[in-house]
Amino acid sequence: MNIKSLLLGSAAALVAVSGARAADAVVVAEPEPAEYVRICDVYGAGYFYIPGTEICLRIGGYVRYDIGVGDVGAFTGAESNDYLDDEEQSTYYKNARFTVRTYTGQETELGTLRTYTETRFNWGNDNAYGDGLERNDQGFKGTSLNFAWMQLGGLRVGKDESAFLTFHGYLGNVINDTLVPYGGFDTNVVQYYFDFGNGFSAVASLETGAGNPFSGPGGQFQDVNPETGGVTGQDSIDSYVPYVVGGVKWTQGWGAITALGAYNSSWEEWAGKVKLDVTPMENLSLFLMVGYGTDDNIDRNFYKQWGGNWAIFGGGTYTINEKTSFNTQLSYDEDENYGIAANIAYEAVPGFVITAEVDYAHDGQFDEGYDRNWTNADDEDSIGGMLRFQRSF
């Protein structure tokens, strides 16, 4: 066999093998289907479907920076000792906060299933420095779980703020809205919300109170038992009997009327509030609220935190232009405690608001020999100011 024959034979063999392989079926692996995030517009802006589910999720929150001076309000003023001569003096109150919020929604055969959580992280100084505390150091101030509830239809359970506040919509857009306090904030709840149509709604809430009777911002006073003169910092349920809150509301285009009643089972005390909200013109909203409560067993409790039996609150918001608003609140109680708060809020760009506020408080019990107000001052009249920067997302 010569070289030419060998080459021709090899070529023929290669062609045959190639043809046989070409006849075999080619198997190509199917790509995995890609599931892109889908927008969910059922519950408002910012929601998206969690991949592989029908649950809509929204993640939000805010970053905040507060600068406070003076002696009044839950977020203003701080005390320290001078590093050189050790004399007591005032300084800034500073607080930086990062808050993360989550919202979920899903339609079920029993109605809409929703959840809401809010967690806050704080870093700054303490504005409540007193005797024996020499320095006003900066540092991590802790983490708080402010909300963690779930709601199916009208039934809500979990960590919330008391329906005694949330159902009537708080008291205006000032920062320090508790110069005269109007009820406890943080509590565990089992609630049911009713919607009767035509603007009528109602709430029934079983609550547990909190360890500090004033569990909102600040919380610097204690309850006083009028019979013994003793103080207590406890105001949560002390048996299987819960605290009870009930309320009704009528909402129309002009505003709303809300009536609420609360029973503190630990101290066997009652409290009630009636609030009127009106919108006389497009850029003006006003409110007026009257509260009344008993103090037979304890002067102040989780629901009646104002001094004496009655208190009155009023204020409103005037929208100057699309970026700027003026907000104010005035408050007064039977013990002659009163407060005035006013601010200008300016939205520099969407989601970024700068607020400058001035606060004044009068302690009606200052001459009694102990401070029953929520100020840091050594006088019956106190004034303070605050500058807040907040980016919400």
TrEMBL record:
Domain of life from the UniProt record: Bacteria
Main location: membrane
Secretion signal span: 1-22
Name under which the protein is recorded: Porin
UniProt keyword Membrane present: yes
InterPro entries per the UniProt record, alphabetical: Porin_alphabac (IPR003684)
Species this chain originates from: Mesorhizobium ventifaucium
Entry's family note: Belongs to the alphaproteobacteria porin family.
